Amino acid sequence: MSHKEVDQPPMVGRQAELRAVRAALTGPPAGRHGALIAGSAGVGKSRLSQEVTAGLAVAGWRLLRAHASGSGTGLPLAALAGLIPPPASATPLPPPTPVRHALAGLRAAAARARSVLVIDDAHLLDEASAAVVHQLVADGTVPVLVTVRADKPVPEAVTALWKDAGVHRIDLAPLSPPQTEALVVAVLGGPVEGRTLRRLRDAAAGNPLLLRELIASAREAGLLDRPAGLWRLAGPLDATPRLTELLGSRLTGADPAERDALELLALSQHLPLPAAVAVAGSVTLETLERRGLVAVITTDGQQVVQLSHPLYAELLRAGTPELARLRHSRQLADAIEAAGELRGVDVMRVALWRLDGGGTVDVGLMLAAAREAAYLREYELAARLAQRAYQAGGEVAAGLAAVRALFQLGRLDEAVRRCAALSSSATSGAGHGDAERTQIAIQLAVILVHGADDVAAAHAALDAVAAADPGCREQIDAVRLYLRAYQLDCSVVAPALTLFHTDGPVELRLAAAGAASCGLLLAGRFTEAEQLLADVVPVARRHIGPGQVQSDGFPAAIASLLVDLPDVAGAQAAAESTYQTSLQPPDRVGQALAAFFLAKIALLRGRPTTALRWANEAYLVADDVQLRGVRRWAAGLRLQAAAQLGDRAAAGQAAADLDRHPGGPHGVRLFDIELARGRAWLTTLTGDTDRALRLLEQEVVRHGTTGAVGAGTLGALDLIRLGGAAVAVRLLADHQPPHGWVLGRTVVDYATAAATRDAEVLLRVARTFAGYDMPLHAAEAATLAAAAGAAGGGDGRVTAVARLFADRELARCERPTSPALRQGGPTAGLTSREREVVLAAAGGESAREIAARLHLSTRTVENHLHRAYGKLGIAGRAELHAVLTPR
After folding, report:
1. What are the extents of the domains in the chain?
2. What's the sign of the alpha-carbon dihedral 445, 450, 451, 453?
3. Is the peptide bond before 28 cis (omega within 30 degrees of 0)?
4. Dmax of the chain from CA atoms?
5. Which fold does the domain 254-357 belong to in CATH?
6. Do 15-171 and 254-357 have matching folds?
7. For strand 115-120 and strand 144-149, is the pairing parallel, antiparallel, or unpaired?
8. Which of 451, 352, 778, 826 is nearest to 604 (CA)?
9. Nearest residue to 601 via CA among 565, 626, 629, 631
10. Nearest-angstrom CA–CA distance, 179 and 187
11. What would the pLDDT profile of 832-876 be if each residue is shown by its tens digit?
12. pLDDT of residue 664
């Protein structure tokens, strides 16, 4: 069988684009990010790419070809599967995530020779593959040459290639009439009769692929002849200018064997040549190749058969009868299995085909594929595969895998019903049934606490099996500690750490680590929490078993740690990373938690508008997937953000949502402090400050009695901001934050200074908050400092600098409002122009730069600065910088 590439039409009318693509790939290294060719179907994107890659291959470049596909299999990283080496079979360390493994494999491939990553129809990339490609380009590993349909949705990571990563975008327009006519002549290889030329040109409408297909169809139908050396249409064209209709006409000429081969390739996306020959036959494939319907390409040393254009696959899949689809699925699974040991994505491909094809089910294959799907966060697929494995005779492990996937999908009631059914059908004899029911009860308890927000029900599920299986006692104990931590009981830390440091099963250690990390974070023991999280991440990596919920929670724990350290920049990076990872494949639980922490971070950074946007998303996603606790906590953040914006309507809606989902004594209370803070901030809009202080005082005391003094300190911080500094001083004396926690010590200093109206200490606290990247808190403390200085008649310089500092920090915020800010007054008697100039000078601008930006003379700027320095009581720019520098 010949595997020569299908004849290509010559390049006509694309010389400028060809030069641009070549320059983007072979130009100076600093700008060698690659090219993205965009256009409508058939406009010549692939043809232009092929022309470029042919030249690169001749020049010795290595072509790394990925295979985007719209087959609908939903397999992550499928497009890159042919380029990624299989993971090491045995290693003392946990294997990397699929994305990290893909990055490592492609970086190694690109390092072996001068390479370019080539992807046709990149709009069909799965999100995981698109993210990997973007990362490779962004870090300079390899340039890319990609094509995309301009009329199709494109993954965000592909769009970011040309928007953010330096890839040169080239938009291909349809050929002009003269260009189309020149192409007709070139394809036919000789002069063309004028009317024929016009008819073909008008039918193609500037689309080179359609033109090529029209000519091929006319040739096959015997409609083109060449009398006197002049090409001419001998009859009417029987196809319309619509590409899909034309391609459909092309495909109708296939005999049954050819049609089967085409449908197999449409369903599989691509097949290794031996497998393709096995299912379709070499003679049939060669016939289809000669007709231009399939192509044989070489990818990283392996010959692969695929349809010559994705549009063929679209038409074929839509027209394949159901019985034929089932038969093709079985054939494909047989062929791939016969090729050798299944690994990675192939396990999932074969399992899907077995699932869709019917017949005997290999329970082990289905369960392995379900685990791989769960690891990749493809929960819909994981639920299907695991449930099929269980129905085919799989043990309780398969049923529980389906339950975990259902929970992740937000199908909470179904997951709970499945647990009940599994428990009823658990086998008995020799204690085996008791062990199974114990595992089911543990899984049910985890679902009830995370989803149903009912700690008491979770305890009851454990109580029902506590005496049945002594071998699971330690694991039950670990889950109980986990549940206690979720109700603010920080006494769980010591026993949980003991269990974590045992050699017990991974799910036991993860539950213990979850309990210990919650307790440490609540108590403000952040140094210990940081060490624990560093220890547990390697244990949690790639875990998809009973402890997966705990495993998935550790990124959120890390974000929580960084928020309150405070390391605002680190928290932002961690939460954004978790959020982006959660979007594709969809991890709704991770998305809700990440959005929650992004809202918390935005509040710290004085950005209530941004906080409200993230808190709304956290609430909506949590509501979708029935994470009732997260939904409640997000409502608390919505209240805080809306109140700080002065938005009564948004605050009223958040309060109504919180009232509808109040939680109760058996709910998860990890972030109950946020609810109290939200309700307290709501009263700033109604004027009932005394009620706000009482609400917060009660919550801080409640947290203190359980040892959750870290979370309680955050409530005390808002007491200060809302005018209750004296109350905060008393509470912090009774429930002191750990000495090593810098934010906690700052809150103590803040409370004392605000209660005693010590302007100098308040200004020092303001500078500390600014150094933490907490500009609203800094502005509030500085405003209190200015008010205290003005009232006390002390050092006027402190008052003036404090007001200027407050203005500078407020400029970094999103126009918030708060009781503390309302105590401010004019900025040290500065005019608006003096204030603008002096703040620019504090930011490092020279007088000349300020003058140019404000359209003033340099002398005028210097005069404004001189007067401002006098009003502020400082000697000049150096002293201005010193007093305004954050600590």
Report:
1. 15-171, 177-249, 254-357, 426-536, 778-887
2. positive
3. no
4. 108
5. Arc Repressor Mutant, subunit A (1.10.10)
6. no
7. parallel
8. 778
9. 565
10. 12
11. 788 788 888 877 888 888 888 888 898 898 888 888 888 777 778
12. 78
